[in-house]
Amino acid sequence: MRNKKVRAWDRVTKSYLYSDKFPSMWLFYKELENRGIRHWETEDYIGLKDKNGKEMWEGDIALCPVLADYKKGTMVQEKGVVKWDNSDACFAVFSEAMADGYMLDNACNMEVIGNIHENPELLKEAK
């Protein structure tokens, strides 16, 4: 069984705090509480790594290969955000072009290029 890993984005200092830097999840959440929990947004590690071996987290921005032309078999790289998909009970990458999400059962062909907090400009470029 893998240990749950969480990161928390501090909206005030604009930085992440990672749960694996603490000996227990209880101490991690106690630290968030001590620092003022209302300033934090938590994101889960999804248990997968991208094609470069980088851990994938909720809130990450990833490039996904998407079939552009079925007959020609051409692929394009689509940019999207990793989010939990309640309808399929799994993590998926969502964008305007991938409204139903790109299910993350295997991330070996994806690449994490940033996240929604530190690199919001990456999403603006996609529009």
General description of the model:
This protein is mainly beta and 127 residues long. The chain has one domain: Roll (SH3 type barrels). Helices cover 13% and strands 44% of the residues. The protein has two helices and nine strands; from the N terminus they run E-E-H-E-E-E-E-E-E-E-H. The chain has helices at residues 25-35, 121-126; strands at residues 6-10, 15-18, 40-49, 55-57, 60-69, 74-85, 90-94, 102-103, 111-115. The strands form two sheets. Strands 8-7-6-5-9 form a five-stranded antiparallel β-sheet. The protein has a four-stranded antiparallel β-sheet with strand order 2-1-3-4, with no helix packed on it. Strand 6 and strand 7 form a beta hairpin. The longest helix has 11 residues, at 25-35. It is elongated.
